[in-house]
Amino acid sequence: MASTKEIKNRIKSVSDTQKITNAMYLISSTKMRKARRDAERTRPYFRLLRQEIRRMFAVSDDLKSRYYDAGVDDEKHGGRFGVLVITADKGLAGVYNQSVIKAADKILSRADEYKVYVVGDYGWRYFRSHGYNVEESFTHSMNVPSLAMARDITREILEDFDSRDFDRIYVCYTEYQGGMSAGEATYDRLLPFDRDDFVPEGDEADKNASTVFEYEPDVETVLEKSIQAYLVGYIYSALVNSYSSEQNARMMAMDAANENASELLAELRLEYNHLRQNAITQEITEISSGARSLKKKG
Fold first, then answer.
1. Is the pLDDT of residue 209 over 60?
2. What is the C-alpha separation between 228 and 271, in angstroms, rounded?
């Protein structure tokens, strides 16, 4: 049985750990709110950009671009894939990292050839240690996501796509779902786009999509530049969603750790009080016995 000193030391150790997990919870909460706020500021620009791409498709039926292809079947096996996987820099976030890695495995299993582009130190270490074909020069830490970071990633991926290294490029990330949820790991095809991706539906229909515009130097060139800019927004959105989901998952993990620490502290304090009570009772018994012995001798 542990002594009162040992239990007292354990209580102090658990209390110190609880302070750390509580601080990590608050930090993750602040980071998540900031990332969501920054993303909301850029959303109107990329929404309008999407509308303009719709307009270009609506006014011209014979547009050609290396960045889009109608009828791509994502369930089809075979081909050369580039896969952008967005993970965290560290653990302590529940199943967040493992979920997105499983989503990446689902895509990679369909490819004849592939190359993995990893954002986040956790995924970088995992894919390298498990023998995946990882792009060595692609080193991006999953710090606070920014548009500059999304532009760098887009430029690097497009260089390989333009060099015809891949038939398709996918992004594996975690969709932020709000509330106390770790989010859902999913994947989307980045390139080539499907023309149907820009067909308006329901309330999203653009009333001005059929308005005739003149494009300089030509509509194909403007479309390619617009799609490149849209791709930056797409990747930025995936980064923010993943980052928010990571912080939310870490909040959940730290909240569970806080609850476990509270339960453990309650048990330790109860055990500590029982030991103290037994010790006091033992001392009282010894004093009483000594007093009776002295009285008999007297």
1. no
2. 64
